[in-house]
Amino acid sequence: MNNTDYKALSVAECADILKSSAKEGKKALIIGHRNPDGDAAGSVLALKRLYEALGGSADCACCDKIPDYLSFLPDSDHLITEIKEEYGLYVAVDVASPQQLGELEYLKDKISITIDHHASYTPFSDNLRDPSASAAGELIYMIYSVFICCKLTKEDADIARLLYAAISADSGSFRYSNTSPKTHMIAADLMKTINSDKEGMSTSYISMLLHDQKSMKEIRAMGMCIEFLETCECGRIAYVIIEKAEAEKLGLSDEDFGSAIDIPRKIKGTEIAFTVKETGKTGENGLNIYKISARSNTEANVSEICAAFGGGGHPKAAGASVQAKSAKEAAEILCSEFKKALRS
Question: Which domains does the chain have, with CATH numbers?
Answer without folding.
Answer: 3-211 (3.90.1640.10), 216-343 (3.10.310.30)
